[in-house]
Predict the structure.
Amino acid sequence: MKIQNMFQKDINRDINGVIKVSQDDELSLVQELGEYIITKELRRHFNTFIENYSKAIDNPTDKIGVWISGFFGSGKSHFLKILSYLFSNQTVAGKHAVEFFKEKFDDPMMFATVVRCTNIPTESILFNIDIEGPINKDKTAVLRVFYKVFYNHLGFYGEDLKIGKLERFIDEQGKTQASKRLLRKSMAPIGLIQELPTLFLRMI
């Protein structure tokens, strides 16, 4: 028997050597979810996260924040990406992400808690802060990146926070569509659309 035949999966298959946020095609998701191994150390970290996540469901709080630290190459990004898949519980290859973990958690109670957590509608926004961050960094740089990504996720113009905030305000008032109609009616006939500020261009 050849050694390569002793492995459960084909050793010649493509394997992502580095987990990247931008790799979100179905083939990559199936591989990442299906082949993720929960070691004894990871089980402890999963348990810590899941316990606190579950407590926040029962007792809502604004004191929410998780810091993941470790040496370069220790698996921080991979762990975070798996958590995002798990709790957003998106459908991959015809089944929910949590189903990939049914056999990975050896504790039935722990898995039951995970299932309970995934029943809460959740959206995950993954991004690389180095890529999304501004060139000129100051003490507000990190906060601006979070706002930028958040507004972009909502479909607003996150590149300029003032515009993004205004767009969100208009949308919360339920006047986005009315504003679009008004702008089309008043500006299109006189050919001024191309002269509109960025906000109005986006709204049209």
User: Anything to note?
Assistant: The mean pLDDT is 80. The beta strands are 91-92, 95-96.
